[in-house]
């Protein structure tokens, strides 16, 4: 993509405003950590790796704001800010992962003069951003092997450069397959209710010149029955230790269809999306968002006033519906508990 998703500057975090794409390309400036929280909650920035990197920079901005405070008070106030950042959205584990990584840098450098501590935090946030792009490219190269020449590929939500710091996860796999010369065509789920597929994935695919067809979410079954879908690849917001995967609402339904039509169904995500503390997907907290996302369209009602609404932003796909989890450490297949343990940071193979 020719635009940067985010720019981690010394005095602010510049985020491409994902609420406005594709109509406008505008940057949102978060000059303090509260504005980073706003940006995450309101989905100026969204996608698990992107919110992880944004929150990491939020930690730096919080420390910058509080830098005049003395010793214990500085630490206490910063702890509060980190809590608030961590609570901005509940499902994507990358958010907590990014904050924890920054917290380690913070605690091991607390003795430094404030300016030096701030520099350490800024470079740690920038490391997270730089590594994210490298990881995605690696993941894409590894994952593209699951996409056959000439394949019809179905994907859901946006998992490209916008959802990360650059390149993308599931869309990174698709991008790598295209770069490898495979003549693929992509079916893009529109992804109700926030339309990340229609607004963002279709936008990125068009930018990259990858042949893509936009469909409403409920068209997926028809395409599968007609034999037009050879493989499905989607991203993840949190993967439990047993491989159960939370991703954008509608992913679980696709996985059930994939089983019915015997179509390979893959998850693509960095290791930072795996929550090794969780035994199964039942423990994953699923965010419920504002009913107005369903009852209203551009501020106008499209449903009767007062109707009951259920609007979960994510669902959990059970591990048994997943053909493989593509990570930067390789493609993990069942049994997932063993496979994921092998790539755990600090584990056997690390
Ligand atoms: O609500 P969103 O748009 O933040 O949800 C994003 C997704 O579900 C993505 O599929 C996931 O974060 C992976 S992004 C590389």
Question: How do the helices and strands line up, and which of them pair or pack?
Answer:
Elements: E1 6-8, E2 13-16, E3 27-30, H1 33-41, H2 48-65, H3 71-86, H4 93-108, H5 114-143, E4 152-155, H6 170-179, E5 185-189, H7 196-208, E6 212-215, H8 220-225, E7 231-234, E8 238-240, E9 245-248, H9 251-260, E10 265-268, E11 274-275, H10 292-295, E12 296-297, E13 300-301, E14 314-317, E15 324-327, E16 330-332, H11 336-342
Parallel strand pairs: 4-5, 4-7, 5-6, 7-10, 8-11, 10-15
Antiparallel strand pairs: 1-2, 2-3, 8-9, 9-14, 12-13, 15-16
Helix pairs in contact: 1-2, 2-3, 2-4, 2-5, 4-5, 5-6
This protein binds 5-S-methyl-1-O-phosphono-5-thio-D-ribulose.
Keywords:
single chain, 350 residues, alpha/beta, Four Helix Bundle (Hemerythrin (Met), subunit A), Rossmann fold, 2 domains, seven-stranded mixed sheet, four-stranded mixed sheet, 11 helices, 40% helix, 16% strand, globular, binds 5-S-methyl-1-O-phosphono-5-thio-D-ribulose
Largest sheet: 7 strands, mixed
Order of SSEs, N→C? EEEHHHHHEHEHEHEEEHEEHEEEEEH
| CATH fold node name of the largest domain | Rossmann fold
Cα shape: globular
Number of extended strands: 16
Tally the structural domains: 2
Quickly count the helices: 11
Q: What is the CATH C-level name of the largest domain?
A: Alpha Beta
- Small molecules in complex: 5-S-methyl-1-O-phosphono-5-thio-D-ribulose
Strand proportion: 15-25%
Helix amount, in percent? Answer: 25-40%
The overall pLDDT average reads 97
Oligomeric form: single chain
Low-pLDDT windows of residues: none
Q: Order of strands side by side in the largest beta sheet?
A: 6-5-4-7-10-15-16
CATH superfamily of the largest domain: Translation initiation factor eif-2b, domain 2
Give the CA-CA distance, first to last residue.
32 Å
Structural class, please?
alpha/beta
């Amino acid at each position: 993509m020719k635009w940067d998703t985010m720019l981690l500057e010394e005095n602010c975090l510049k985020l491409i405003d994902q609420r406005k794409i594709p109509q406008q390309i505008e940057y949102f400036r978060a000059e303090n950590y509260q504005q980073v929280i706003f940006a995450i909650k309101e989905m100026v920035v969204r996608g698990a790796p992107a919110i992880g990197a944004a929150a990491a920079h939020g930690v730096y901005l919080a420390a910058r704001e509080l830098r005049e405070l003395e010793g214990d008070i500085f630490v206490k106030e910063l702890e509060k800010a980190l809590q608030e950042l961590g609570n901005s959205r509940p499902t994507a584990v990358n958010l907590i992962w990014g904050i924890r990584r920054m917290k380690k840098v913070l605690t091991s450098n607390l003795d430094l003069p404030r300016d030096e501590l701030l520099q350490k935090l800024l470079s740690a946030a920038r490391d997270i951003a730089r590594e994210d792009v490298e990881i995605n490219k690696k993941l894409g190269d590894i994952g593209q092997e699951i996409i056959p020449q000439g394949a019809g590929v179905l994907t859901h939500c946006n998992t490209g450069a916008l959802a990360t710091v650059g390149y993308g996860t599931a869309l990174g796999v698709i991008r790598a397959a295209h770069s490898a010369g495979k003549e693929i065509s992509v079916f893009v789920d529109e992804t109700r209710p926030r339309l990340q597929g229609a607004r963002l994935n279709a936008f990125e695919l068009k930018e990259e010149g990858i042949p893509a067809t936009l469909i409403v979410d409920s068209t997926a079954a028809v395409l599968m029955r007609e034999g037009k879908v050879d493989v499905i690849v989607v991203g993840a917001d949190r993967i439990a230790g047993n491989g159960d995967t939370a991703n954008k609402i509608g992913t679980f339904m696709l996985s059930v269809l994939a089983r019915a039509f015997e179509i390979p169904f893959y998850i693509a995500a960095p290791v930072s999306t795996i929550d090794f503390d969780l035994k199964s997907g039942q423990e994953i907290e699923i965010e419920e968002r504002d009913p107005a996302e369903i009852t209203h369209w551009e501020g106008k009602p499209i449903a009767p006033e007062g109707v009951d609404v259920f609007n979960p932003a994510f669902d959990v796909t059970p591990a048994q519906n997943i053909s493989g989890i593509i990570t930067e450490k390789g493609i993990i297949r069942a049994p997932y508990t063993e496979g994921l343990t092998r790539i755990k940071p600090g584990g056997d193979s690390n």
